[in-house]
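G., the chain you wanted modeled:
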Amino acid sequence: MKQYFNLNKLCLFAIIGAFVFSSCVPQKKMLLLKEMEMAAENKSIDYQNERTLNYKIQPGDNLFIRATSIIDEKTSLLLNGGGASSNYLNSDASIYLNSYTVNKEGYIDYPLTGLVEVRNLTVEQVKERLQNELSKYVKEVALMVKLSNFDITIIGEVHRPGKYKIYQSEINLIEAIAMASNFTNFAKTESVKLVRHTDNGNEIVTLDLGKADILSSPYYYLKPNDIIYVEPLKFKQWGFSSFPYSTVLSVLSLGVTMVTLYLNMKNNY
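Predicted structure as tokens:
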């Protein structure tokens, strides 16, 4: 009888151990923006970020440009590529097809003005330059200039990985992760990779979103075509996103049954 009692205790401990170690992730692994000094002294801390909010136009970018002439409707039609109605600009594809691509030398080919250099200019500076160029040919023209290819890609340990189109002038890392429905339970928040295209190729940096000083990082604010990769925790290969209770219990029950049969056979002989 004592053997059976010890066997039942062993089975119970095995179930509890499997539940604890396989289904739980330490809470500290899931915390973001941790700041020991802030918690200890119960005060706020300012994190300065000398960032450049305005993105500099690069070759391969697409600029959506709409012109409106107050005194000449025909000029508006000419500048807008034949007069594409706003009713047709209701999808990403149509906006792209009605945009101007910056060539490898950094120029766009715009009606009336011809080639206009826009490389390393902000969207607002592009608008000003085009306005000055157009003023040589027509008067009273209002321009709207937007960057139409602000996309970011988020992969790895997030709930909704994928490519996201950004309809605002800026977005930061925390907002991007929120767009992907936050980290999974196995996200390695202290090792988030950011891939950014540069003039010399691609740059890869490792960011720790578990520390509050990420708010001061020059990589906190994202740029078009940035890729965010959230690494998994090392023990994910031994863990489960949802613990397989039925499987574990079935295996343990089978084990108990086999041991019981063995002990019965041994006692009978």
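Residues 245-268 form the longest helix (24 residues).

Shout if anything looks off.
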